[in-house]
Amino acid sequence: MRQETLEIQDQSDKQPLVIWVIFFATIISFMGLGLVDPILPAIAKQLNATPSQVSLLFSSYNLITGVAMLITGVVSSRVGVKWTLLTGILLIIVFSALAGSSNAISQIVGFRGGWGLGNSLFIATALSAIVGLSIGGTAKAIILYEAAIGLGISVGPLLGGELGSISWRGPFYGVSVLMVIAFFALLIKMPQVPKPKVKSSILDPIKALKYPGLFRLGLTAFLYNIGFFTLMAYSPFVMNLDEHGLGYVFLGWGLCLAITSVFVAPKIQARFGTVKSMCAMLVLFALTLLSMGIWTDHAIVVIIAVIVAGLFLGTNNTLITTAVMQVAPVERATASAAYSFVRFIGGAFGPWLANKLAETYSPHVPFVTGAIFVLFAMLVVAFGRKHLAHVDTASH
């Protein structure tokens, strides 16, 4: 009897091949974010652009990604999950190649917006597909998704640093080539997933935000993404490192993010609960940004702080994504789109704000400002715990 129980448990832990295909494609998709990071100073120097102009590469990408989240459900409910994923990947292939062929910062910013459109179609659909098709429940599916994100973000900067040392155009072309591989892997291996019986509306994600728990999680992500992208888009300008150096720093950051998202977050959530765990991670991240603001002139402090921040961000990302999937009585894809719409707007505002504050006031101000926004995010969670308490019950 015991042996049969163990066999059933082992079978439930084995994921179907389609999950690993989506997992692989998600890794490559999120490599696109990290690939760009080591080349930000190089782009600024070679295209005679200010840091705030270069930061618009993140802003346009995140803005279009966030707004396009409103149509992901509309598209996937009509053409199906497989073709939504493939369409998103195809757009990333085209626009990343066009960005690499550009000769002006304004062109790159524009093409990054198109890249963001493809990214929105892919990531929202990938999350709901992994959750819907995986074996073992929502929590395990979210961990898989966050692991793919962590691996993509961690490996991306290393490859970006290597390609960027040859030319700043290299990482853009690198993303295009890698996504071609992902395109054919999904085209060949992913079966057709049945379309939902009810067609989604563009208003569904907006309507979903009427649920207080989902709205609070979106607002939390909006605020802490300002701090997140302050670290991503501004810290490369104060570390005084070349493309290789920046690649290794963000490799360390991404590895910390990947490890904690998979191994640490579930244990912390099980022991302390979602709300307490999220509050603790947000406070620790805010303190990390504050230390970067105090010792901005000491590159070694900033480097260590960036890597350490990955520990808190990885844990918090898994906690908040798991909560989003369970906090409101709506379809998972709709919940993901609503949440992502709000958080990516914060991701669009943060990079530009950070670099503009540095140009206007001093190099210390962006990190301190980012820390304040992250602390506000913690307060949103803490004061909304009555709307989030049921998440832990759903997880179990």
From TrEMBL:
Compartments where found: Cell membrane
Transmembrane segments: 17-36, 56-76, 83-105, 117-135, 142-160, 172-192, 213-234, 246-265, 277-295, 301-325, 337-354, 366-384
Stretches assigned to the Major facilitator superfamily (MFS) profile domain: 18-389
Keyword Transmembrane helix (UniProt): yes
Membrane topology, as annotated: Multi-pass membrane protein
Key words of the record: Membrane, Transmembrane, Transmembrane helix, Transport
GO MF, one annotated term: transmembrane transporter activity
Annotated InterPro entries: MFS (IPR011701), MFS_dom (IPR020846), MFS_trans_sf (IPR036259), Tet-R_TetA/multi-R_MdtG-like (IPR001958), YfmO-like (IPR053200)
Record's GO cellular component terms: plasma membrane
Primary subcellular site in the record, as a coarse category: membrane
Pfam families registered for this protein in UniProt: MFS_1
PANTHER family: MULTIDRUG EFFLUX PROTEIN YFMO
Protein name as catalogued: MFS transporter
